[in-house]
Write a structure and sequence with these properties.
The chain is an all-alpha fold. The N terminus is likely disordered. Helix 3 crosses helix 8 and helix 5 packs parallel to helix 6. The protein contains nine helices and no strands.
């Protein structure tokens, strides 16, 4: 009988293995519910449009999608297709990797390239989310962020229907010169100084002292 059934706390070894029973199973089922089958269809269409028919198509459903992406090759082709010839960020082996660590390494290369492309850390899945199918909804989120960036950049490397993704809000942080930023700090400093003076001038502490000549 397992320690859980005996009413004993789970061992460290059990915790490390991430058991898929009890609360963990409930959490896993909730994660699986976040997976969007319609979104899967859109992402498959985009990946095929972006990479070409040679990448094939997955069996429909969460696990089919996971198997299709698991060795990292399709993902690597996808991110490479967003760059012009001569500057592809991920090296793709001639034959798809079959060893576990090589497949995980290929996924890690995709993740680094996606981050370099502009996908923020909060939109990035972890290697185990895909490799062990722990959170395929997170994989969808990363691919949606990548597609949104590609549409927003509009640099000629995006293929497919631009309506598949929402454009990301444009940032204008770099439009300010250093002198403008310094000027802005000076204005804020002056405002703080004047506010400080005004607040002190406007305060009265107790009754004014009367001076008798």
């Amino acid at each position: 009988m397992s320690p859980l059934h005996q009413g004993l706390p789970p061992t460290a070894d059990m915790a490390n293995k991430g058991p898929a029973y009890g609360m963990s199973r409930d959490v896993q089922s909730k994660i699986e519910k976040k997976y969007d089958d319609e979104l899967e269809d859109r992402l498959v269409e985009w990946i095929v449009a972006q990479c070409g028919a040679a990448v094939g198509r997955p069996e429909r459903g969460r696990l089919g999608f996971q198997v299709w992406l698991k060795n990292g090759i399709v993902l690597s082709r996808l991110v490479n297709s967003l760059y012009p010839d001569g500057s592809k960020p991920v090296k793709i082996p001639d034959t798809p990797p079959t060893m576990v660590f090589k497949q995980m390494e290929q996924i890690a290369q995709f993740l680094k390239a996606a981050e370099d492309y502009g996908v923020v850390k909060t939109d990035m899945f972890q290697t185990v989310d895909l490799f062990e199918a722990k959170d395929m909804a997170a994989v969808q989120r990363t691919l949606m962020a990548l597609g949104s960036l590609a549409v927003t950049k509009n640099d000629g490397n995006y293929h497919g229907d631009p309506n598949w993704f929402m454009k990301k809000a444009q940032e204008h942080k770099r439009e300010f010169t250093e002198s403008q930023l310094k000027e802005g700090k000076n204005v804020i400093g002056l405002q703080m100084g004047s506010n400080k003076g005004a607040s002190q001038a406007g305060m009265s502490y107790g009754r004014p002292r009367q001076i008798i000549s």
